[in-house]
Structures are given as structure tokens and as C-alpha cells.
Amino acid sequence: MPTNRLRVVSLEKVVVEAPHTKSFCFQADLKVNPGQFIMVWIPGVEEVPMALSRIGPVKAITVRNVGNSTEALHRLGEGSRIGFRGPYGNFFDLTREHHLLAAGGTGMASVITAGEALAEAGKKVVTVAGAKTKDELILLERARRCGELFIATDDGSAGYHGHVPDLVSKVLEERRFDGVIACGPEKMLHTLAKVCRQKEVRLQASLERFMRCGIGLCGSCAMDGHFICLDGPIFRGEQLVGLKDFGSYRRDRAGRRVPI
Ligand SMILES: Cc1cc2nc3c(=O)[nH]c(=O)nc-3n(C[C@H](O)[C@H](O)[C@H](O)COP(=O)(O)OP(=O)(O)OC[C@H]3O[C@@H](n4cnc5c(N)ncnc54)[C@H](O)[C@@H]3O)c2cc1C
Ligand code: FES
Fold it and tell me: Which of 85, 221, 253 for mutating ligand 2's site (highest number of atoms within 8 Å of CB)?
């Protein structure tokens, strides 16, 4: 059951994952399923949604510094305190046998726990991880421990020179999977949804939108009649077909519908 109670925890460890990305680890006794998120409160700053990138006894969030709140988080060190509510949202369905993980940038933070749960259950996992450039790839060692790993970079500095959906398409041409589990920039997910439809593979995509309440009250995360916080963040490929805003428009912090 989700809890709206604010918990305050001390950061046990801060790990630099990439030049603009850090993981913040803390102890918290709560049951989390792969793909769920928490609303993180940094004292003096607003709350932000973050996927849990570790869901064992030690929990973690893996944060890219993109603005005010994430900058404030990046200034925190071991022993600093943060608050959080949750976990919230639905979670990845891991009942099938053979999965392809597709992660763009910090999207890896959301899918890695699914990969680890699948690998632990003896299921087959292949990961396609992408980023703009080699230095921005994160959590690769953990992905490698789950199974085979393919890399894509926009600038060709590591692995395949190109985007995650193109590399996923190539992998799907050669192998059969029961499903694709994905998180990353919405444009990437939009293209990936087309690829999965063409190849007739089930897709579960975790969407990231601006959020305020995280519990379906404020409407900040609305997309084509869905609330990402309440109905998602994970949507099946067939739910995304024909949605006008998916991959095209998002809501800014004032609630305006703006192009992505
Ligand atoms: C369910 C969920 C899980 C998420 N998990 C992670 C995670 O594991 N790691 C991580 O680094 N980030 C994650 N995010 C995105 C993260 O919440 C935003 O980057 C953060 O809220 C930005 O806050 P800010 O004040 O630092 O930046 P702002 O000043 O609010 O924004 C800076 C820039 O980031 C863009 N932005 C803001 N919010 C989002 C968003 N939700 N999605 C995409 N772009 C956004 C803005 O449009 C702007 O261009 C997640 C978002 C959601 C909804
Ligand atoms: S964040 Fe308020 S409704 Fe989703």
C-alpha cells in the first residue's frame, strides 16, 4: 500500500555515477516493486519524483542534475537528511521469461531493478543502454551482471553509433523476447513503441513527467486523460497507441501544454 507519510532518512552513501549523475543510498524498511517511484523532499526545496534504483534493505535514487531541486540534491553528502513519500505508482510485470531492457540516460535507474529481479528469478535478460555520450552511461556493471549488454551512444563514443530504439530494432531482428521493459526520454519511448508494434513485441514503458503531488490530486502530470503518477508511471504499448500528447507535448510547471 502506498503511504503518504513523510519519512526522513540520512544518506548513507553518495556515489558519483557520471559527471552529472549521482546515486544517493539510504536505509528504509519498505516494500518496493521494480519501477515504482518516491516523491523526494529536499529541505528548503520542492519535492521531485525519483525512481528507486535499489530496492533491497538499502534503497537508492540515481539523480541527474538538471535544475533547482536536483542541483540541491547533488550538494548533499553522506549524513545529510532527505524526506520522501511513497513508494507510488504501478510496477513492471515480470511474469514472462525473456525480457529486453531498453534504457536511455537515467532511465536505467528505473529498469535496473526489474533486470535484477528477473535475473535473480533465473530469467533471461538482455539490456540495451544508451546515452548521448560514453561518460553519461550509468549502472553498466549491474546491467552486465543481469545478462548480455549492448550499448548505444548518440556520438558513437561507445558501442553502436545511434539511438536506443535503432539498436533495439536490430536486436529484435535476431532474437525473440517475451517483452521489452523501457524507460528514457519520451521521444525515445515514442519511437520504441513504434518499433515494438512493428516487431509485435509487448512493451512496458515508464514515463517521466513533471509532478507535484504524486497521488492523482493536482493534474500536473496529465497526459491524454491519464495521470502518470496514478495510472502509471508504467504504460503498456497498446495503451500508448494513438495518444496525442505522448512523445509530442508535455505540461510545464505552470500546467501549460508545451511541445517536447
Ligand atoms: C516517475 C518519475 C521517475 C523519475 N525518476 C528519475 C530518476 O530516477 N532519476 C532522475 O534523474 N530523474 C528522474 N525523474 C525526473 C526528475 O523528477 C526531474 O528531473 C526533476 O523533477 C527535475 O527537477 P529540478 O527542479 O531539478 O529541475 P526543473 O527546474 O524542474 O527542470 C529542469 C529541466 O528538466 C525538465 N524536467 C523537469 N521534470 C521532468 C520530468 N519529470 N521528466 C523529464 N524532464 C523533466 C524540465 O522541463 C527542465 O527542462 C523522474 C520523473 C518521474 C515522473
Ligand atoms: S502529480 Fe499530481 S496528479 Fe499526478
Answer: 221
- Show Cβ contacts of residue 147 under 8 Å, excluding neighbours closer than 6 positions: 115, 119, 124, 125, 126, 127
Probe residue for ligand 2, chosen from 88, 211, 253 as the CB with the greatest number of ligand atoms within 8 Å: 211
Find out whether 183 and 103 touch, Cβ atoms under 8 Å: yes
Q: How far is the CA of 96 from the centre of ligand 2 (A)?
A: 30
Ligand 2 within 6 A of CB of 227? yes
CA-angle at 32, arms to 28 and 37, nearest 5°: 95
Q: What number does the ligand 1 atom closest to the CA of 209 have?
A: 41
Q: Is 82 touching ligand 2 by the criterion CB < 6 Å?
A: no
Residue 184 DSSP label: S
DSSP, residue by residue, 51-98: E-SEESSEEEEEEE--SHHHHHHHT--TT-EEEEEEEES------SSE
Ligand 2: does its nearest atom lie under 6 Å from the Cβ of 219? yes
Per-residue pLDDT reduced to its tens digit, 48-72: 999 999 999 999 999 999 999 999 9
Q: Tell me, using a 6 A CB cutoff, whether residue 62 lines ligand 1.
A: yes
Q: Is the pTM of this model over 0.85?
A: yes
**Cα–Cα distance, 94 to 209 (Å, whole number):** 24
Gap between the Cα atoms of 154 and 133, Å rounded: 6
Distance CA 227, CA 230 (A): 5
Residues 128-146 pLDDT 10s: 999 999 999 999 999 999 9
Mean per-residue pLDDT of the chain = 96
